[in-house]
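I have been asked to look over a protein record a colleague put together. Thanks in advance; the entry in question is below.
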Amino acid sequence: QVRLVESGGASVQSGGSLKLSCIASGLRLDDYTMGWFRQVPGKEREEVSCIKWNGEERTAADAVKGRFNISKDIGKSTVYLDLNDLTPEDTGVYYCAAAYLINCNVLAAYPHKEWGQGTQVTVSS
């Protein structure tokens, strides 16, 4: 059974940084494409960043390019999201997602993703 547990969310001021972690169990990170999504009340969940199962592709939404970085540690079965130069627009619940052997360009639409419970990031101006 796949289980994803996010942590690292916090309240920070604009310009601050955070490091989110997603510990994955019940899967192998070298078999699963992993993504970070975020959601604010009243809006759809949006993809923030993705790392392909083989590590050969990383993507980031335009709104976070150059500020957020996704990485993974297979030995620790953990996926990270480094958030830098945060703005109030980055506020939301951040979710980790996993999908078996797919490309990043189909992750958002893929219906069989596994999800974590989310971690709250709040950025104040």
